[in-house]
Design goal:
Helix content: 25-40%
Strand order of the largest sheet: 4-3-1-2-5
Structural class: alpha/beta
CATH topology of the largest domain: Alpha-D-Glucose-1,6-Bisphosphate, Chain A, domain 3
Distance between the termini: 29 Å
Number of domains: 3
Number of helices: 13
Shape: globular
Largest sheet: 5 strands, mixed
CATH class of the largest domain: Alpha Beta
Radius of gyration: 21 Å
Strand content: 15-25%
CATH architecture of the largest domain: 3-Layer(aba) Sandwich
CATH superfamily of the largest domain: Alpha-D-Glucose-1,6-Bisphosphate, subunit A, domain 3
Length: 419
Amino acid sequence: MNTLNAYHLGRSIGTIFNGRKICVGYDTRKGSEVIKNYVIEGLQHAGCEIFDLGLQPTQVTCFYGFKNKIPSVILTASHNPKEYTGLKIYTKEGLRFSRLDELEKIYNEKDYISGYGGIIEVNGEEVETPYIDYITKNKESDLKIALESYGGAATFIAKKALEKIGCKVYSLRDKFDNNFYEKVPEPKEGNLDELIKSIEDNSYDLGIALDGDGDRSLFIDNKTNIVDSSHICMIYLNHFLKHKKGNAVIAIDSSKRLNSVKNAKISWCRIGTKFIEAMLKENNAVFAGEGSYHYYFGKYYPFSDGILAGVLMADLLCKKKSNLYDMKNELPPVYILRKNFVCKNDEKKEFILNSLLDKFKDKRHDTIDGVRVFFDIYDWALIRKSNTEPLIKMIVEGSSEEKAHSTINFLTETIAGMM
């Protein structure tokens, strides 16, 4: 994004929302605040009344919009490298904006409405305090937690929320950093060494890593193991549905063993926040989860929230007088492996997916999101295009660790031969 297209994008968003009230936040990236100002100018010239929330995590801006029944715009590129700049749009219902074709048409044709709206700069405390009060109500925990935020938008507010429920929090980052401490702000294996060492050296009960805009959360147990998102989904569902039945939405990159969770009626969904949020609302689900460490809690709101996920995990571990290592070991084993292939050519991506579809046409398969092939009940592979990066992503589950490795090695060779 640049300043010119940011302005016109603001005009387009203001037009599609008919010049109504709208709130805007931004993340810690170097260009986000500058781009935000041009987006606001565009919104203003479409007649919108703008509530400028300043630097905030995505879900905090969304919460302000959700609570006040107005749309939200967040300048963020989420977990992507620092050189990226992006924008997220949410409706007043807290759902990811989906009328993109209509928005693109307005943008391309410059078919704007005109006006001149005001700008209200909202004090950070007025934004953050109601959010913290809402997600921490009736929650308590005395866990010792190590927190990795990469200097992103959730750096301070996540610590405040966890401390409010009684946790002792050690944050690896004590300031915002538009370089993300020379890291990619994505919680994933290979990007957690400092957090793991901190847990090991200081005997912390739990580690939490948040992405650049704070809506993802990865958990590390008290023995420094990264806990797979499928196990985290099982833990939440076992807790929420211990005494009652309920609906849950799970992305198709998660373990099929989630079908065995007691009292949970699982609906499987294609990957992506807008699909998950829509199904969560449609099914009146108590919970949703994705392999990318997005967790959604239907009792609160439809959008994913890494800070809320951390608060709820700390609370349930305290209530159960347990730890994450022991809770995970009570669950069925999950053998999921993931691998990415850099592919910047869209035609090549389509060629690879179509070739795989042809190769496995005699196997049970679906095309809900890319190509998913089933070899057995707990042996399957999903190959799909990334929604946000120039990548082809592969996710494999095996009934054993050996089978998972065998499948991913076979498919890696197959895809490499097509690149």
